[in-house]
Amino acid sequence: MMKKKVIQAFQKEFGSDPVFITHSPGRVNIIGEHTDYNDGFVLPMAINYATWVALRPRQDNRVVVTALDKNEKLDFDLENFSKGTGGWKEYVTGVAWALQEAGHKLKGWEGVFAGDVPIGAGLSSSAALELALARAFALVSDLDWDPVQMALSCQKAENQWVGINSGIMDQIISASGKENFALMIDCRNLKTIHVPLPKNTRIVILDTATRRDLVDSAYNERRSQCDAVSCHFDVKALRDITQGQLEKRAGILDLTLYRRAQHVISENQRVLDAVKAFKKGDASALGLLMNESHASMRDDFEISREEMDQMVGIAQSQSSCYGARMTGGGFGGCAVALVAEDQVEKFQEQVVREYKEITGLKAKVYLSLAAGGTGFEVLTK
Ligand code: GLA
Predict the structure, then answer these.
(1) Cβ neighbours around 146 below 10 Å, total
(2) What is the CA(119)–ligand 1 centre distance, in A?
(3) For residue 212, what pLDDT is reported?
(4) Looking at 36, 39, 116, 170, which residue is catalytic?
(5) Between the chain's N and C termini, which has fewer beta carbons within 10 Å?
(6) Any catalytic annotation for residue 170?
(7) Is 257 exposed, middle or buried (0-12, 13-18, 19+ CB in 10 A)?
């Protein structure tokens, strides 16, 4: 559907067929929250919601791109561009900048893009856009495609150009997702392991329909609290501290800092345990770890909110649900649940109904299989 949409829009705007289509997915994190920037472990999966770009190369150094959903256009010269005033355009110039910083010689192109990753829901619409754009630049400029290197460039664009201090999880899963598999990422050495989802289960994404302002500042605050603990222990990252070491300093560390570190250290262990559960196909064990992860985010990392706790509680109380937790950066957005496949429909209906009764809010449900990562097609007639 999205593919058709960008092709038709391209034809309308440029009067011919595009030469390339690129696409990159959003993601849902199954477990491992706020661990990526602590050099820890995460376990996301790519979803069937993505950003699509239809494009053709240009003979000059200009990039001309239309954001279909906003009906806005950006036109810039690859040899002379600077930061603008924010919004989606910064992602295009930011990705160009980061690829140039990595030493790539970029060529111009023109195209349109659109996507169906819900924006602001914690499902990584920005990483999807960055990687779809990077794929477009790589195609027209003949660059080798190394998913991890490209993910790093996109993260650099987001951190240093757009100005959002995110970790590496979203870009790596968008670049490296594999159909039917979740991906464990070691965020220290960027090694990945694909793990199959337990049989007869489905991942269900539950959008609480709540968003919070100032998410960025709360995110940055959590990051600096984690850094403060690493500094206290004189280690590179929280990854290097064991539960025992943390406990020994419990009396000395500020209580808030202690709890932040407690979340990250225990969450890293949960990801490792989740990989074992995945490998055994043990949905019950995985579900329990998801439940524990939620409690840890709620009580120790303090990034949940009332509606989210309601949503997670309602999901967990369904007999068809193995486990549920908040997913993503926090303070609203989506929960993720592991549900018995043959009961998904009933589960959805029930959760949406109970959530409405309790909060008055209308939840949305996104169902997705584990999708593949960044890809492209060459359109030939
Ligand atoms: C956001 C960031 C990620 C990660 C999560 C929390 O999605 O972009 O890098 O830190 O929050 O796990």
Answers:
(1) 12
(2) 15
(3) 74
(4) 170
(5) C
(6) yes
(7) middle
By alpha-carbon position, which residue is closest to atom 1 of ligand 1?
329
pLDDT at position 184 is 98
Q: Which tens digits make up the pLDDT trace of 52-91? A: 999 999 999 999 999 999 999 999 999 999 998 889 999 9
Distance CA 276, CA 286 (A): 9
CA 155–ligand 1 middle distance (angstroms): 11
Mean pLDDT within 142-156: 98
The answer to whether residues 90 and 52 touch, using CB atoms and an 8 Å cutoff, is no
**Closest C-alpha residue for ligand 1 atom 5:** 329
Per-residue model confidence (pLDDT) at position 211: 85
Q: Which atom of ligand 1 is nearest to the CA of 29?
A: 12
Residue showing tokens 């064991």: 242
The token pair that represents 13 in the structure block:
């705007």
Model pTM greater than 0.70? yes
Q: Which residues contact 37 (CB under 8 A, 6 or more apart)?
A: 165, 166, 167, 168, 187, 223, 226
* Residue pointed to by tokens 């472990």: 41
90-148 pLDDT tens trace = 999 999 999 999 999 999 999 999 999 998 899 999 999 999 999 999 999 999 999 99
Nearest C-alpha neighbor of 278 from the set 343, 194, 175, 172: 194
Q: Which atom number of ligand 1 is nearest to the Cα of residue 124?
A: 7
Alpha helix (H) ranges present in 104-242? 125-141, 147-156, 169-176, 215-233
Q: Which atom of ligand 1 is nearest to the CA of 32?
A: 12
Within 6 A (CB) of ligand 1 lie: 33-34, 36-37, 166-167, 169-170, 328-329
